[in-house]
Amino acid sequence: MSVRDDIADQLGVDLEGFDPIRVVLYGTLVGLVAFYLSPLESGLMTALKTEAEFATSPPFVPPTADGFTLEPFSVAIDTLASAILNSIMLAVPATILSALLGSFAAYGLTNFEWRGQLGVVTLFIAGIFIPYQAVLIPLSRLWAIVNTKELLAPILDITLFSVQVPVLGTVELATHPHYASIINLIITHAAYGIPITTLLFRSYYKKLSTEMLEAARLDGASAFTVYRRIVLPLSTPMFAVTLIYQFTQIWNDLLFALVIIPSGSGPAAVATIALNELTGGIIQTFNTQMAGAFVAALPTLLVYILFGDKFAKGVAGEA
Amino acid sequence: MSLNTLKRLLGRDGSGGSGTGPLPDDIASLRGGIQSAVSSLRESEAVRSAPFWLPPFLLMGFFVYGAIGWNVIISFTDFAGLQLPTYDPTAFDLEMYRRALSDGQFWLATRNTFVLLVSFTGLSLAGGLGLAILVDRGIRFENWFRTIYLLPFSLSFVVTAVFWRWMYNFDSGVINVFLRGIGLDFLASKWLAGGVELGALSAIPLVPETLQFKLFAVIFALLWQFSGYAMVVYLAGLRAIPDDQYEAARVDGASTVRMYRRVILPQLRASTVSAAVVLMVFALKAFDFLYVMFGNNPGPTADILSTMMYRQAFAANEWAYGSAIAVVLFLVALAVVAPYLYGEYRRGEL
Amino acid sequence: MADLTLDHVSKFFDDDGSKVVAVDDASVTIEDGEFLVLVGPSGCGKSTTLRMIAGLETVSEGQIRLGDDRMDNKPPRDRDIAMVFQSYALYPHMSVRGNMRFGLEESTDMADGEIDSLVEETAEMLGIDDLLGRKPGELSGGQQQRVALGRAIVRDPEVFLMDEPLSNLDAKLRSQMRTELQRLQEDLGVTTVYVTHDQTEAMTMGDRIAILNDGELQQVATPLEAYHRPANRFVAGFIGEPSMNFFQMEVHGDTLADDSFTYSLSPESEDAVSGSEHVTLGIRPEDVELVADGSADHTYETTVDVVEPMGNENAVYLDFGDESRFVATVGGMRRVEAGETVYAHIPEDAVHLFDASSGDALKNRSLESVELAEPEPQA
User: Fold this and answer.
1) Residues in domain ABC transmembrane type-1 (chain B) (predicted)?
2) N or C: which end of chain B has fewer CB within 10 A?
């Protein structure tokens, strides 16, 4: 750090002493903050305004006492609630599944040595860069052919999906036709998440000490035991990175949901679809739209604000 | 042969394990051969590792490569409307590709795809590098600045599109309100519908008479969302350069600008390549954003291959035609990614 | 308990289609309870040999046996061996206790209490019983070293394999651990194969040492035998610090000659070199004597080039007046100045003669003045 400190010294990190370069630097940084936050700030302000207010006042100005309302948020929450529940039911299992499978694959492809391994690795990594359009039609065909509801009915119909809801009594979620779509989406997202999670875990497992894994092998541990007792406990930091990254990706997806959920709407809609429908109307209710955007983005925003550093590590592809 | 004999031949019963037993030499060596073949198979790294990578590989391989193959096959058929595709190899032809080549919409979408790909990637890299250098100047509250610049990247295309549709609103969107506020009324425009006359330039093929703002409005919004990502990658690259090099450049009397140009930037090649590849892939996936902003038909000036593919397949039910466009899109992605992967492979970094 | 035998063991690697020989037809029997040091320069195949014994590398040709049991086709966990690694290879997320328990949990059916008492007993023996609750990251290098040893010892294996276990320690701790390790091995009486590139370690620790070069076993012998009766030029040069001096000589009947000097041979030596035209004459630095005058046989006038004082002795670099230099070690109290002219005596009974092309020893020094600790036949 010493050198950068030196540079900082030269540029006059001491803000009290007037240093034009330093002033310009901080001015630029703050200006950029305004640029990056302005859509969010004006969106939030608009979401807190009545229709009359947002049409007449500048979008980034806070609402006046008369023009303040929380109604857009309550409308947005009402409209999006079930979709958000669907998104959670989708994103949580799909995230865990793709992280686990990626971790398995990375272990098998990193901590063993065999011929042809690099070819398999290349196929995994190339999978990251596939434009999803290239698989959309087969996906829609596949999920039209495979009847997940029927296949899983014997397992899921009775127990897993019936829940007690106050007021409504017992709700048989399994009898809703939409759970099959959600399961289809979970499998799809888990499968397409494997390449990136494998890459992330592989970059981490490459740094594990070979001697340590050999020691475990000599200690009598099988390949599976080495994974369970050594590799898995040591991958906790990478699981955090991968889970956060995958959760964001899956939560934010629109395309697969459009294609896999029949007719793109109804009880199976996920948050992105519901938000698009909320905002796609002819009446330009920007306040409700903005509130909806915040509600739909809330989980990923929370994850980002709470675990921003891990998220950054994930996107930079490092452990 | 009884089970016990077999066991003894395989040397599993312990008593036959001494190797000096009464077995004739050839059987003993045969036994050794079988034993070592069996155990070397069991112990081979490929076999030991397979339970871990094979199931994910099959799942991923089916969905990624199986689906791509299926898509290619569909593109050879005449699959359209409600009729199911007929997978009859004798009826396979390249009709859908010929159709694309003679389709004006396809060429416009291809042009727009490349404009988006190149300008979005270039601008995001430049913006990200600028941000990274600013953030790397030993500033206070570095974490705060970095977090804010990367914040849009955590949002979905859908949310970004919703925000920017409001930003670009002609009457009360932030951009026009801001421009009018600082007295630049004449710049306030219909960003999502307007354009400027190009005059004589439109004589060039594929250059329209009016340059619509639409695509550039899209690129600008995406720049807002993704420049933070490029920044993070460049920051990692900058932090990997040893401090000595800054020091050496200082001692050599290089100015800050020269130091970055001559010493630092050349070492960011790897960061540039990996960020560029990822950004291009995002650009190819920008479908969600356009779909939310403009529906499934963004019009000739902003239509890209991915929106066109979706429209043809899922709105017009021209499944085979959509597949053919998807194959083209896949080949574009391959052209971007294959050299990158090959380079990584050559440098042993896969 | 049984002998560990390497029977014509070879290891080939495939390097882009061309066959690379890492270990070439190595045969050696390590006796029950013996401490054998595998020594050689880096890349000589010593680690590969050790890893073949461990089962971490497959054997391309030949057999490895423990007693009469063939073990080269068994998976590592069935070989009854324990290994200590250069990097210690401790499990960073487990406590010292967890590290030491791991092998017993995975390879035996012992009850928890039994494992615990074994771990505690071993930890006490190594003086790390107060560290059992700590994680490896909280330990010093020396303590980690002991945990790595403890992890191997607690399993009570037939064979210990050690891959440069001391090379990450600082010099002082290393010599201390050397003694301790040796004592421990003696107490436990477990057959040990120890790999090192450091000839001092090899000399001081091994019951016998096996010197490897380019994948080939050069000599298996007691340290003193390897020192005094090297099988070839490589061993002669590798063992001993500073290295043996070598001179390339032409054979002229009863005299050897090179550009700088001639060396007359006794009839016995003449016999030894009679089959060769070119030989290498070797003399250990401590056998070169600096004498007052040049009248005696095998005494040459030289100029002192550099003196490296080491306290107990001085390494004196001598010069025949041309480019050829050689080293003599003399007592630390002896004053020699650079530039001085001195007479170097190269006594014939201390001279080694090697065939120049094959490097094989033709004649080793006479051992009348040296006592060898029970020399053993070469395997």
Assistant:
1) 110-342
2) N
